[in-house]
Amino acid sequence: MRKLMLLDNATLDGHLARRSDVNAAVLFSVVDQQFDWQAELLADYDTMLFGRVSFQKGALFYPTHPSALASRMNSMSKVVFSNSLESLDWAPSRLATAAPADELARLRGKQGGNICIKGSPTLARTFSRQGLIDEYVFIVHPVIAGSDGVPHFDDPADLPALKLLDVTELAAGAVALTYARA
After folding, report:
1. Euclidean distance between CA atoms 179 and 4, whole angstroms
2. How far is residue 140's CA from residue 28's CA, in Å, rounded to a whole number?
3. CA 55, 56, 59, 62: dihedral to nearest 10 degrees?
4. Which domain holds residue 144?
5. DSSP β-bridge partners for residue 90
6. Helix (H) or strand (E) holding 174
7. How many angstroms separate the Cα of 102 from the Cα of each of 12, 15, 133, 177?
8. Is residue 105 part of a domain?
């Protein structure tokens, strides 16, 4: 069965961004080595799941970025969960035609590589709450968001018990923590 992985950045205090940041990516010091590592991580993946906001941010960044990660992301199929988007300008992509769990079941029923949610916290919470995420990969950066932070998971029901699978030291003081459901 095709595995579903959540891949996202995080602060030391468990946030994905600051509410006051116009562009959440400014919070993290992402360097080429981290892009290369993520591209390697996604080698067995061929489908990305996005919410509207993360898809739109990705569509502005990845098509022209020179990194191996951008090349990988640009080639992957993208399924976007949105009630407001009518067209998608980052190919290959399509709008989801079913509820998240049903769309995932349909994808898992087809041949293909693994599936990744990158960012998209509302969508990630939905899948996590239903026990559908197989692996969680958080790239933790040496940054504190504090009370201005946007949490990954703000309800204990959103995150199951996890077991640590791997720790990878990355550049700029970041570490990648890989977990599976316990």
Report:
1. 12
2. 9
3. -70
4. 44-154
5. none
6. none
7. 33, 28, 14, 28
8. yes
Helices (H), 26-166: 32-41, 52-61, 68-75, 100-108, 121-129
Instruction: Look at the pTM and tell me if it is higher than 0.90.
Output: yes
Q: What's the structural domain count of the chain?
A: 1
CATH no. for residue 116? 3.40.430.10
Q: Over its length of 182 residues, how does the chain's per-residue pLDDT go in tens digits? A: 899 999 999 989 988 877 777 455 545 667 788 999 999 999 999 999 999 999 999 999 999 999 999 999 999 999 999 999 999 999 999 999 999 999 999 999 999 999 999 989 999 999 999 999 999 999 999 988 888 888 888 788 888 999 999 999 999 899 999 999 99
